[in-house]
Design a protein that fits this description.
Length: about 300
């Protein structure tokens, strides 16, 4: 059997693509992957998604998305795609030795924040530790926070957080930033930002009742000395990694691995293959923009199939 559309990856982009393709009667199937629901599954409170005036927990929101697409008959496989062949149509999607065929593919595999790799980072994830200032900065009004990183992402996060926070400490393991000069200048000129060079977080400190971050232990990368510093939040801004390994050498990507699409569309360089959400978006990385491109991918796929007379 050849499916009209196979969607690889869940999260807001995948679920929205599934919703629109299902309502267009394309009978899509979805492979949700090893982390169904994507980054929102590790997000506690979501307050910036329209339609939830009191906010919503990330996992609860993804459960609502899932229930909505299942109502329209979308078949969701909680399996991880291991290989994809788009050299000819129908496209082949492999789950180990099983092969599934499709006339069109929508890729919504997302991106993963890069973390420091500390156990305490996991412990306090969503309780003072975040990888998204735009998502969580609001919760730290008039509080002191740390931003970790030295690239443009870190500069952007630090600058953004000064809107809410009383003080932002920018921690960098080297003695100079790799961020663009204009971004550095903006941060260095901001009176609310204090830069701490040659430092790394050794551990994130916190309490259990209530569960929250209370500080960090910093290590001087030159002398090896450690010291503790009280803060209310820790923002890790050392970049994101798009989950695009399956398509290396197959689809056009930028130098980091984000899938490139034709501007204003979700079309990739392979006709019939569409990319939506954070796997193709290095700029916005929000649930609402991911959902928007999921809708675009569904409509792009529907029009493609119509032109090919499959639908």
């Amino acid at each position: 059997m050849v499916h009209n559309v196979i969607i690889i990856g869940s999260g807001p982009a995948g679920y929205t693509a599934a919703l629109y393709t299902a309502r267009a009667d394309l009978k899509p199937i979805m492979f949700a992957g090893l982390e169904p629901g994507g980054q929102l599954m590790i997000t506690t409170e979501v307050e910036n998604y329209p339609g939830f005036p009191d906010g919503v927990m990330g996992p609860e929101m993804m459960e609502l998305f899932k229930r909505q697409v299942e109502r329209f008959g979308v078949v969701i496989h909680q399996e991880h795609v291991t290989k994809v062949d788009v050299s000819e149509r129908p496209f082949k999607v492999y789950v180990e030795n099983e092969v599934h065929l499709a006339h069109a593919l929508i890729i919504s595999t997302g991106a993963s924040a890069k973390w420091l790799g500390l156990e305490s980072e996991v412990t306090y994830g969503g309780f003072g530790v975040s990888a998204c200032a735009t998502c969580d900065g609001f919760f730290f009004r008039n509080k002191e926070v740390i931003v970790v990183g030295g690239g443009d992402t870190a500069m952007e996060e630090a600058n953004y957080l000064t809107r809410h926070c009383s003080k932002v400490h920018l921690i960098h393991r080297r003695d100079e930033f790799r961020a663009s000069k204009i971004m550095q200048d903006r941060v260095l000129a901001n009176p609310k930002v204090e830069v701490i060079y040659n430092s790394a977080i050794e551990e994130i400190l916190g309490s259990t009742q209530p569960k929250k971050v209370t500080g960090v232990r910093l290590r001087d990368t030159v002398t090896g000395e450690t010291r503790e510093m009280p803060v209310d939040g820790v923002f890790i801004a050392i970049g994101h990694k798009p989950n695009s390994e399956l398509f290396h050498g197959v689809l056009d990507m930028d130098s980091v691995g984000y899938i490139e699409t034709v501007p204003g569309t979700t079309k990739t360089n392979v006709p019939g293959v569409f990319a939506a959400g954070d796997v193709a978006d290095s700029v916005y990385r929000q649930a609402v923009t991911a959902a928007g491109t999921g809708c675009m991918a569904a409509i792009d796929a529907e029009r493609f199939l119509e032109a090919e007379h499959h639908s």
